[in-house]
Amino acid sequence: MYNYSVRYHDGRLSIAHDATLTLMPDHWLIHYRDPSGELTSVRWTLPGIVTDENFSNLFIFRYGDFPQQTIECKEESLPATLKKRYPEKVFFKRRITNIFKLNNATIVGVALAVLMLMGLGYWFGLPWLAGAVASRFPVSTEVEMGDTMYDNMIQAYDVDDQLTAATNDFVKSIDFKTHYPIRITVVKEKEVNAFALPGGRIVVFDGILRKMKTKEELAALLAHEVSHVHYRHSLRNIFRSLGGYLFLSVLVNDINGIVTVLADNSNMLANLTYSRELESEADQKAMAVFQADGLDLQGFVDLFTTLKNEHEDVANLKLLSTHPLTGDRLRAAEEMAKRQKAVREDVALERKWERIEEDLE
Amino acid sequence: MEQQETRQVTFHGEGAKLFGIYIVNILLTIVTFGLYYPWARAALLKYLYEESEFEGSRFTFHGTGKEMFIGFIKAIGIFLGLYCILFGGVATRNVTIMMIAVAVFYIGFLLLIPIAIHGALRYRTSRSSWRGIHFGYRGDRKEFLNMFVIGAIITLITFGIYGAWLVIEIRKYIFKNLRFGNITFSYEGEGGAFFWLNVKGYFLSLLTLGIYSFWWVKDLFAYYVNNIRMYQGETRLTFRSTATAGGYFKLILVNMLIIVLSLGLATPWAIVRTMQFVFSNIHIDGPLDVNAIVQTEADYTDATGEDLADMIDIGLV
């Protein structure tokens, strides 16, 4: 019962000997007939025997210094016998990779469970982590970073100095309840758009100003963008997409370009849904600022109506839009406006708005 | 005339098993912030080797994650250093410093590639064996570095044309220094022929809207394989490719479908298909005495400390 048939390699020549392994109390005995027919035996003392870790059911043992001798055994009963015969020596360590010796259905099952966990990590863990990292980021560094980004990108635009001055003046009359230095730049661009950079820089296209009819509309837009700054949304977005990118590139490591492109795009889609949550958060904060300052929430209703009319022709693309569906935002704003009680007419702000309107002409 | 002896390496890997290894690797790599990478690589190579069979015996990869870890950390350190120089230079906004930083960055990379190839070859071969006989690579790092850098500069000057000759030079050098016990190798390709093969492949692929590219890939594979020679004493053995354009078409098309439709999850199955395709299309012709290969290579771990720096295995299979 202590005899096993094995293949033996002596480490000097590539010949494979069909040999018999006998498990002696304190050593292994390997005997075989060499090509000339002579019976040869080799003695392996226990401490020098090393088990080769592998994924298959072929048991491989090595012995001695380089070049090592090797035996390979296919008999399934070997591990159990070894355990019984030599209780003090561990030949087969328990390892996580042993699951690979199980059948394929189990492996795939385990793998799919792991994949699901990773999916959860990607959808829920990553945004949380991005938020946590962003919230620990020093404000001064963020402002510096935002300014560098601003310097790099503003060159691509044609800045309207007069409108910029007028809008910055307008901003001074509203308390946005944030400690970030809010600095507006108005650029000559037909598109109806505005965006915020980390650290308080906000870029407004004059195209959107031209569509506006009231000071509250502009105040609503600015309040919304300031909320992005205040909640560090850009920063969170950057960390989120960096983290997602890292995650996916590790996942698809060693794979050809197609998957990477696919992965990139799916990551972008994920970022967009993330952005929608951030947009809603910015809307809420902006409306809270309006209520605290006594500004008319009708501004939001008008702003969203303007945006809605503007994007009507590209309605089909709304699914991919970074902003929540404008219709939904409009309804939410109408709801809030209806419930608003005290509205204060701000004469100074009105005058500043008139100046902007003049500049626009 | 006597029937020509021919032999093949066969691949027995299974997609499901590879998938399991793959998933565990990814998970542990993520959890350890990438530090598990060397172990992941060792596991993958171990599996691919042990499922590769020649003359009834499997290959073995002896490398461990622990061994590769030092090289891995060094490589990361050098990469970080190079990127720091690049970004540092750009941050100064001084044009001269920026130019110097960019130059250092690219020169650094240019030097790093041959060093990494050399290190990986040396490490990988020394950790590969079949029936207990180890492979080996006896190339000299300085020599290889010189060849690579000079070749790269000439390639730049000639707008890439010399690239074909460089690739052949590199292959010749590597095969000349490759050992499997007392078996030696050589590569018989020529730069000129390789260059025209590529020119033809490129333009015909353009003209046929990419359809010819399958023939091009087939030709490149054949040019690689058919020019390998193996010597056992006085006996010369030749390698022969049997890959066809149709075979490549099927391999690439099905692999693409597998990968895209599974969003990359079924990649291990595609890898298995590729390995099977490659091995099944390489024949080793000639009388080889598979029982008489003599161990010749020394153990790499006995080498000096300098060689430890080479213990790196980058992603070239």
TrEMBL record, chain A:
It holds the Pfam family Peptidase_M48. The chain crosses the membrane at residues 102-124. One of its GO terms (cellular component) is membrane. Residues 161-336 form the Peptidase M48 domain. It comes from the Bacteria. Its cofactor is Zn(2+). GO terms for biological process: proteolysis involved in protein catabolic process. Coiled coil: none annotated. Keywords: Hydrolase, Membrane, Metal-binding, Metalloprotease, Protease, Transmembrane, Transmembrane helix, Zinc. Binds 1 zinc ion per subunit. GO terms for molecular function: metal ion binding; metalloendopeptidase activity. Belongs to the peptidase M48 family. This is Peptidase family M48. It comes from Dyadobacter soli.
UniProtKB/TrEMBL annotation, chain B:
Keywords: Membrane, Transmembrane, Transmembrane helix. The chain crosses the membrane at residues 19-39, 68-91, 97-123, 144-168, 202-226, 247-271. It comes from the Bacteria. This is Uncharacterized membrane protein YjgN, DUF898 family.
